[in-house]
Amino acid sequence: MENAKKSEIGLYGLTMIAIGSSIGSGIFRTPSEIASYLPSEGLMLLVWAVGGVISLCGALTFAKIAAQFPHAGGFYVFLKEAYGKLPAFLFGWSMLLVINTGSLAALSLVFTSYLSSFIPLSDAGQLSVAIGTIVVLTVMNIFGVKFGNLFASLFTSAKLLGILMVVFLGLFFGTNQDVSFTNTAYSGGVNGLPMISAFGLALIGVTFSFGGYQHATFVAAEVKDAAKVVPKALIIGILIVCLAYLTINVAYLRFLPIEQIAASKSVASDAINTIWGFGGKFISFLIIVSVVGTIGIYILTAPRIYFAMADDKLFFKKFAELHPKYGTPVWAIAFQSLWTIVLLVFWQTFSNLITFVVFVDSIFFFATAVTFFVLIKAKRVSSIVIAMIFLAMTGFIVLNTLYEKPGEAVAGLIFLVIGSLFFLVFQKIQARTAL
């Protein structure tokens, strides 16, 4: 049975996992954040290309580790093998209190910003609808209304159709004649930031949009000839994602001046509206469908991590309880959504949320990449260089965010400190039950 499992996924299947995990709904919102920091067409495209290089270096580094430790759990396993239980626990803790819940909160704001194309909503109205969306999808998941393959395919198709439509119309029918893709002149961005700082802050949105490719390394145990196939799939997948992101940003710029992109909360529909009013609403509909699907899947899947940790007596005992009728980890799902709502109310804006998420997420990307030097004995020079590039760029994002956005960064660090204290409590409980 084990051998059968290991031969299920080929190059095409794994490439699709890498692409599907990376291309999310962020690309319909983050370009506005990036344009506000880098009000230059050339720099806006450059930061996406740099993000692609960072993602590719990270993916190849994690592929090497996954080939050595092809077990379910991904980063959790790598961190545990290299450093012990505490860092692994903090990764699961951060998934609950920062990474997954913060992403859910940010996605719900993407949903409401595009919903405003149909129903005008104030900022307070958008916040209320975002909370209501989380509540409804949580109840659906608790009662076993699962987003199966058919629904997942529908949501993915809507997302890809939206991207293709924007790219096609922008490249061939865009009306902005003043755009200069070679222009890298920098005019100060938000609050006159130095260019290096602005570039680092723009990378937050890029990192948020590229995030997810690492999931392809988590299924290395089920890949035929993993040592060769996993790196190939990641290279092909990330190159395709990078091409998609670069072309859709070119399309946005062909529709709208960069100042309008920076001011937009629904850049895709605003772009299409310049040439086709109904088209803008159609794009908004596709994005709404895509985002609802993504939120539903995130609500369903991540609590399995908390459930597994609770089952190991390293997390809240209630999180290991299943609903007696529907078999869902009801307490894990419910708490996750409750905390998502808390983050929505506290941070409120998309920019604050993704900064909070990417800062903590990047810390664990950095820590996991370091395990390459701890766990992998035979290392090629090329692999070492790739890992060092990833570590340097990820470290830059972390330090720049800490300096330029201390509120979001310090909040993330506080949660890690609190998590360390909870780990000690859970360890004591585990020791007592073992007696």
Short description:
This protein is 75% helix and 0% strand.
Would you write up a description of this structure?
The chain has helices at 2-6, 11-22, 30-37, 41-68, 75-83, 85-115, 123-142, 149-173, 195-210, 226-255, 258-263, 267-273, 277-301, 303-311, 330-347, 350-375, 381-404, 406-434. It contains 18 helices and no strands. The protein has one domain (2-434): Up-down Bundle (Amino acid/polyamine transporter I). The protein is mainly α and 435 residues long. The two termini are 36 Å apart.
List its salient traits.
single chain, Amino acid/polyamine transporter I, mainly alpha, disordered N terminus, about 425 residues
Topology at a glance:
Elements: H1 2-6, H2 11-22, H3 30-37, H4 41-68, H5 75-83, H6 85-115, H7 123-142, H8 149-173, H9 195-210, H10 226-255, H11 258-263, H12 267-273, H13 277-301, H14 303-311, H15 330-347, H16 350-375, H17 381-404, H18 406-434
Helix pairs in contact: 2-10, 3-9, 4-9, 4-10, 4-16, 4-17, 5-6, 5-16, 6-7, 6-13, 6-14, 6-15, 6-16, 6-18, 7-13, 7-15, 8-10, 8-13, 9-16, 9-17, 12-13, 16-17, 16-18, 17-18
Major sheet description: none
- Integer tally of domains: 1
Low-confidence stretches: 1-6
CATH architectural arrangement: Up-down Bundle
Would you tell me the structural class of the helices and strands?
A: mainly alpha
| Beta-strand share of residues | under 5%
Number of strands: 0
Please state the overall shape, judged from the principal axes of the Cα atoms.
globular
User: Average pLDDT, to the nearest integer?
Assistant: 86
CATH superfamily: Amino acid/polyamine transporter I
CATH class: Mainly Alpha
CATH topology: Amino acid/polyamine transporter I
Count of helix runs: 18
> What is the straight-line distance between the termini?
36 Å
Give the helix level as a range of percent: over 70%
How would you spell out the order of helices and strands?
A: HHHHHHHHHHHHHHHHHH
